From TrEMBL:
The keyword Transmembrane applies. Belongs to the drug/metabolite transporter (DMT) superfamily. Plant drug/metabolite exporter (P-DME) (TC 2.A.7.4) family. This is WAT1-related protein. The keyword DNA repair does not apply. One of its GO terms (molecular function) is transmembrane transporter activity. PANTHER family: WAT1-RELATED PROTEIN.
């Protein structure tokens, strides 16, 4: 539910003119301020010493999994919709499996039921993503008139910035960056096993990287000014609630019940966004999003079932992450915990 809020609020803020470069910078700065002290006190006895090599590896991981991923993610939301972004986000487990097989970091094991199920689920996920991207279809009429919309400028309503091809490319790039992060983060946790400190260092490194990117692409000084408005609330929400409270809750849940249990709830984000987006943002729900979303969810649970069988039969070969949104929206701490 919190990730659904992330998609809806960030879309509203971006539609009112907020720069996604600025949003990424402020989000990581706030996350660093929140997680830094917690990591310092809670892991002061178990935290290893930071070296140039370990910090370099953490910085590379932050570049791929946060700086690139987050900028592409929020840019994709700007050009599409929260419903679209949430649907594409549910393809993450299948895409991670496909990339791991292509990189020969995991075997498909197509002679087993679990292996065949993962391949089938991945194909269904990709098919659903293609449907969402290439076929909008007719708008689904609402049973009621939307009672409230977030305050947007009149010219910013229907179809503004709805460049679906550009948005789908950006979101796909975000997903690829996320998959790469998930695959290679296991090696980093062996170098630096203090999980919360690792997340805090990643946020710190991402803050520095995002500042450089932001100053290059967003040179309007007015874009960096935040007032007491929706944009400030978005920064606080994404930095404290998502990168702070939700990440910690995910870490606890994964430790208690495992990654597959957490991933099972990822379609809830899609359902919440599908209900609230037409009400709050005056978005139109299209037939293509419904058909594609159903296919993606079917593929997601097929992959998760196969992954559960693998965990029971041969152990955890590769951590699977819950999709964000979301999408930073996992999320860093969740994946780290699964490999830690």
């Amino acid at each position: 539910v919190a990730y659904a809020g992330l998609l809806l609020i960030s879309k509203a803020a971006l539609t009112t003119g907020m720069s996604y470069f600025v949003l990424v910078v402020y989000r990581h700065v706030i996350a660093t301020v929140v997680l830094g002290p917690l990591a310092y006190f809670l892991e002061r006895r178990s935290r290893p010493s930071i070296t140039i090599y370990s910090f370099s590896m953490i910085s590379l991981l932050a570049l791929c999994g946060t700086t690139i991923q987050q900028n592409m993610f929020f840019a994709g939301i700007k050009y599409t919709s929260p419903i679209f972004a949430s649907a594409v986000g549910n393809t993450l487990p299948g895409m991670t499996f496909l990339m791991a097989v292509l990189l020969r970091m995991e075997k498909a094991r197509i002679k087993t039921v679990a292996g065949k199920s993962k391949v089938l689920g991945t194909m269904i996920c990709i098919s659903g993503a293609l449907v969402v991207t290439l076929y909008k279809g007719p708008a689904i009429p609402m049973l009621f008139f939307p009672p409230v919309h977030m305050k947007l400028h009149p010219h910013q309503h229907h179809n503004l910035n709805k460049d679906w091809i550009k948005g789908s490319i950006l979101l796909s790039t975000s997903q690829i960056a996320r998959c790469t992060w998930i695959i290679f983060q296991a090696k980093i946790t062996k170098i630096y096993p203090a999980q919360m400190s690792l997340v805090a260092l990643m946020c710190f490194s991402a803050s520095l990287q995002s500042v450089v990117v932001g100053f290059i692409f967003e040179r309007n000084p007015a874009a960096w000014a935040l007032g007491w408005n929706l944009q400030l609330f978005t920064v606080i929400y994404t930095g404290i609630v998502i990168s702070g409270a939700v990440y910690c809750l995910q870490m606890w849940s994964i430790n208690k019940r495992g990654p597959v249990f957490v991933a099972m709830f990822s379609p809830v984000t899609l359902m919440v966004v599908a209900v609230l987006s037409p009400i709050l943002l005056d978005e139109r729900l299209h037939l293509g999003s419904i058909i594609g979303g159903i296919l993606i969810i079917i593929g997601l649970y097929t992959v998760l079932w196969a992954k559960r069988e693998d965990l029971q039969d041969v152990g955890n070969l590769l951590p699977i992450e819950t999709p964000e949104t979301t999408s930073n929206e996992v999320q860093e701490a969740g994946c780290i915990t699964k490999s830690g």
